[in-house]
Amino acid sequence: MKRLFALLFTLAILVAGCDDKSDRGAATPIPPPPVAPSLETSASGKLPSPSAPSSESALPTVAVSPTSESLVVNIPTVEIQPTQAPSPEPPTQVAATASPDPSTDGPVATSAPPFVEPAPELLTTGLFEPGRRDDASLVEGEAIAYLVNGHAYQPYILFVEPSNELNVALAAYIGDHTDQTTPEGVTPPATADNALAGRPEILVYSPESNGLFTLVVRAIAGQGSFVAHFFDLVTPARGVVVQQAAALAAGTEQVYEVTSNGARPIIVAADPTDQSDIALDILSEDGTLLTTANYSGPGGVETAYVLPLGATSYLVKVREVNGGEANYQALIIALE
Questions:
Q1: Which residues contact 252 (CB under 8 A, 6 or more apart)?
Q2: Which residue has the higher pLDDT, 120 or 234?
Q3: Is there a contact between 266 and 313 (Cβ–Cβ < 8 Å)?
Q4: What Å distances lie between residue 315 and 61, 148, 197, 206, 289, CA to CA?
Q5: Neighbour tally for 159: CB within 10 Å
Q6: Would you say 151 and 208 are in contact if contact means Cβ atoms under 8 Å apart?
Q7: What pLDDT is recorded for position 11?
Q8: Which of the residues 145, 167, 261, 274 could staple to 197 if both were Cys, CB 3.0 to 4.6 A apart?
Q9: Are 115 and 131 in contact (CB under 8 A)?
């Protein structure tokens, strides 16, 4: 009887223990393991929600991905900031607009433009212009013509240097006569045939109206080459050392000093801008008179030249013949 009671008591305890385990499992479930703070919290700066974990919070990569995408979107904004800001104006452009280049001030603005060396094709391209020169060869009886667009009452100077065997004569014709260098029935208003073979000839012509005129260089004897130099009194040219307007008070003279380029000629011209009667004197450095030009009368241009044997200094004197006042344009050339 005691054994039966002990067996029943043991069975009751076992049954009670099984019921207690099922109750404990239902009442106190095992909590899930704690989750460490994700990058979402650090990147966004938000505190984790106290509520129970949900399906949204269980996917941290979904939350991190938009954060990284927003950072990528902000990068172009930083890159385009320079385009949003006003572009600075280059200081050099402002300086150029505000004030002119200092190099254009002063003597540069009033200095004569550089001389352009004449080209041989001038004879085929049209006009022969002051400041130019040309060289060619001729035999006796041949001639060459240059067409010029002249201005009324402006003196033009043609200076021709022939070789030793060539003797030349010069002439100026009104109009275009380049097709025939000896036009029949036409008298040239200006000619020059004064020097011997190999010696320079100089022709001065002042047209009475605007328009074309023709300069002719003719070989009257011998054969050889020549160089033709063409000037007016206002156009810059190679070798010009004086080119200016000047005035004389009554009873005064104007003296210029010039030195030749070796044995090259010195050419001098003075043109009154009023009706004064002026004369030119060329003197050696010691004051010896070498040549005088006083042929044109009141209001007429005077021209002279000298042929030095080497580098020589000269005095050029301009005076009014009657001792009166005079206004004139001066030109002195030391040929190179």
A1: none
A2: 234
A3: no
A4: 104, 32, 28, 26, 9
A5: 23
A6: no
A7: 64
A8: 167
A9: yes
Strands (E) located in 233-323: 240-248, 253-259, 266-272, 278-284, 289-293, 302-306, 313-320
Joined together, the tokens standing for residue 37 give 């703070």
Residue 211 burial by CB count (10 A; 0-12/13-18/19+): exposed, middle or buried? Answer: middle
The bridge status of strand 253-259 relative to strand 240-248 is unpaired
The residues that bridge with 175 in the sheet, in sequence order, are none
Nearest residue to 162 via CA among 149, 183, 180, 144: 144
pLDDT at position 144 is 96
> In whole angstroms, what is the distance from residue 274 CA to residue 259 CA?
29
Give the type of residue at 86.
P
Average confidence (pLDDT) over 239-266: 97
Q: What tokens appear for 44 in the block? A: 């966004």
**Is pLDDT above 70 for 300?**
yes
Q: Is the dihedral of CA 118, 123, 129, 135 positive or negative?
A: positive
**Is the CB of residue 318 less than 8 Å from the CB of residue 253?**
yes
Residue 327 parent element (H or E) = strand 326-334
Report d(CA 157, CA 267) in Å as an integer: 10
Q: How far apart are CA 116 and CA 234, in angstroms?
A: 15
CB distance 267 to 332 below 8 Å:
yes
pTM score of the predicted model: 0.64
pLDDT digits (tens, 9 = 90+) for 204-219: 999 999 999 999 999 9
pLDDT at 89: 46
Report pLDDT for 182.
80
Q: What are phi and psi of 57, to 5 degrees?
A: -75, -15
Domains and CATH numbers, the chain: 116-236 (2.60.120.380), 239-336 (2.60.120.380)
The secondary structure of residue 285, as a DSSP letter, is: T
**CA-wise closest residue to 333 among 67, 113, 131, 45:** 131
- Distinct helix (H) and strand (E) counts, the chain: 7, 15
Q: What is the pLDDT of residues 22-42, one digit of tens each?
A: 444 444 455 555 444 444 444
